Amino acid sequence: MTNTPVLYCVSKPVLEYPMSQRLKILNIVGARPNLPKIAPLIHEMRRRPEIEPILVHTGQHYDEKLSDIFFRQMGIPAPHLNLEVGSGSHASQTAEILKRTEPVLLEYKPDLVLVVGDVNSTIAVSLAAVKLGIRVAHVEAGLRSFDRTMPEEINRVLTDAIADYLFVTEEDGVKHLLQEGRSRESIFLVGNVMIDSLRHFLPVAQQSRIGDELGLKNGTGWRRFGVLTLHRPSNVDSAEKLGHLLGAIDAVAAEMPVIFPVHPRTQQRLTEDGIRHHPQLRLVPPVGYLDFLCLLSKSTLVLTDSGGIQEETTALGVPCLTLRENTERPITISEGTNLLVGTDPAKIIAAARDTLAGKGKTGRIPPLWDGQAAKRIQFEYRFVKGTCPFGQFSLRWQMNGYETWCFQIDRLRPLAAPPGAERVRAHFGQSSIQGCR
Ligand code: UD1
Ligand code: UDP
Fold first, then answer.
1. Fewer CB within 10 Å: N-end or C-end of the chain?
2. Segment 48-59, tens digit of pLDDT
3. How does 113-139 read in b/e, with b if 16+ C-beta sit within 10 Å?
4. Is 263 a catalytic residue?
């Protein structure tokens, strides 16, 4: 907390009138990966009396296993509102979120909208907010796969172009944002909030019974097993592509069970096209967060095309083969346990065999992935009201206490300033503003 602000006009103080008013932050979630990101942020905001957090769910994901179970397991408070947009094409889903968000923003009048990640809800709500002049904070800014065929890449680039505060998980993100012309003052390297959740919930996750339920334990402990997730449209929307990938997984499943929690997008393809798979590839419905974390932490090998799981395996020190041609999370490769193997079955099989032979990638935990990222995101806020020689004014200022100052003034409107009025400068904190008298 900073000291009470004092506003001076020239050298004469005309104001010392702080009003306590809470900073209203409207937080958005929509899809599964948003939930482990928002959880530590909401918990942190609720600890701070000067912040009033509001939570809105767009309803992009709605299945119990993709949404409600995360709220329960992570103690995320029920959303104030669910926009219930549901599924649809990119255009219709994005447009529906935009349309349904606007009246909510007008009603709640937040001081700030906070979005996380790279899903359609992230860009749609950001756009609705900035068009109403509401500031936007983007958590997990700056990641780039440089693959414009990925819907998430478009969402990232656009959200980062319009958000006011950009909170970044890894150094490359800062570089990308600067290259795209964002100012250094708007960028904050704070670490990875998803890893805050992982570190917080891992001890609870270790109590999960999922190992027994799936027969992954024997008398002496955990057996060797793998985990597979696939849901990127480029991998699962074509039956042929998905068939090739599952063909490669056969080689792994021949050696040990592979647990495959199936995303609904992937399930659709499997159901419609009846793709065959090895009997030791165990298809199960999406798994709740704690069970999934338990599985990841005990697995011998993870194969995935997920964004978040590349990070979680790096944080857990578990070898991960990413079945994609690119990644927006290069630090999981340069420092972590992730290997980008692509989607060529021969390469997947070779990399999996190496890992099973004990030659899996080792790594270390990236800087600032220490469970404290949410605490590094601070919004401080003052609302000040007063009079000056030409009438009443009010101003609001807001800053982020991490590393640098962000300073904004919404209004300073001397009423009926006469022509030729002398310009004066008002100072507070490390900043100053111009007025006239
Ligand atoms: C979305 C995100 C993706 C993220 C993924 C995480 C976008 C563009 N994509 O992809 O970045 O990695 O979530 O899981 O935002 N469905 C259900 N139940 C649900 C939700 C969806 O059955 O609760 C089915 C519907 O048939 C829907 C399909 O899954 O059409 C895809 O859902 P959608 O939210 O459009 O994209 P995801 O593939 O889930
Ligand atoms: N996850 C989960 N159960 C599953 C699959 C994933 O709890 O069956 C979690 C995973 O641990 C991570 C998040 O969901 O926290 C990642 O979501 P997803 O892979 O759907 O999206 P992406 O990160 O690719 O956007």
1. N
2. 887 899 999 999
3. bbbbbbbbbbbbbbbbbbeeebbbbbb
4. no
